[in-house]
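Z., the sequence and structure:
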Amino acid sequence: MKKRILFTIDSLTIGGAEKSLITLLNLLDYSRYEVDLQLFAFGGTLMHFLPKEVNVLPPLNYTRFLSQSIWEQLLNPTMLIVRLLYSFKIRKSGLLHADKACLYWQTIGRCIEMNTRQYDVAIGYAQGIPTFYTVDKVAAKKKLLWVNVDYRLTGKTKEYQSQFYRKCDVIVPVSDSACKVFSRDVYPEFKEKMKIMWDIIDAQMINRMSELPPDKSISKGFPVIMTAGRLNKPQKGYDLALAAAKILRDRGIRFRWYAVGDGPYRGEMEKFIQENHLQDVFVLLGFTPNPYSYMRQCDVYVQTSRHEGFGLTIAEARILNKPVVCTNFEACTMQMVDGKNGLITSFEPKDIADAIEKLLTDKHLYEEIEAYLKQEKKGNVEEIENFYQLIGC
């Protein structure tokens, strides 16, 4: 008899956790497992890459409620009240994503129905709402909670979330760094529950996707720099990328910097680009389900993150043999060898610009890094065996 597994994640828009889950689902042995997937938002582009064997569960009642017109919502006063209450609470300034997730569950969680199925294993594949749902709303013999980032919690948010990690069977950080932060700085009392599983990266799939035509054409008349990821400031550090681009432009360096992705920081980025006359050198390409067709065309890949659990796009750039400039966030040295497969910099825009300029102007260094990248091990699909051990069936 097949074992029944439930995965829960916010959505299948482009992101590190989402791409990791898609890769994992495409490697599973469906002769052994029956898999359900619960989403909180539908229509993400990565849904096109789901294996046909995965059963996507219907939208939750609250998810359906959010898609209704205001007149339809008025017919459900209970949900309307909690929605308005949540909207009021998150207007407080200074709230981080983790704080908002806690407010969401404290306010709206009561309106979310129980999953009526019985599972052998239930997996919350991201922090926050997927974690809360897996613990509170699912019946399973074993519950695993993924930690995809350097998850730093403090104060009331840390206190509130501890109840969910206490109730699960296994906490699964995706890197040594994510595990170190979570066990050292957040919940040392749960250290014995933690088992690392690296994000699975399928090098063959990335290479195949990189050979497909891109959504938009990019100029190859100049050296091409690329950054990919959700457009935000606190984690991805796009403010650092913009500042570094301005420094390079002011120095007279020839380049085109393309940013693939979308997110809440886009408006501020557009304003900075316009005010600093960077339209010709820093281009926002927007959202695409296939960033690899752009990544294949770039000369240098740049990651300006302030923190990452692993840094999946760095691994993807390395698979395509692209020299990387990377800020020195805690997990970066798990992949990056400074001066070998790229350059590690501080979080100062000038230092980032210096590293990019060095790769663009020092042909000998660039060729040495490119040669090193070509002999690096590509991908880690064998990590699927670790997954089978984690779920224990």
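The first strand starts at residue 3 and ends at 9. DSSP finds 16 helices and twelve strands in the chain.

Let me know what you think.
H.
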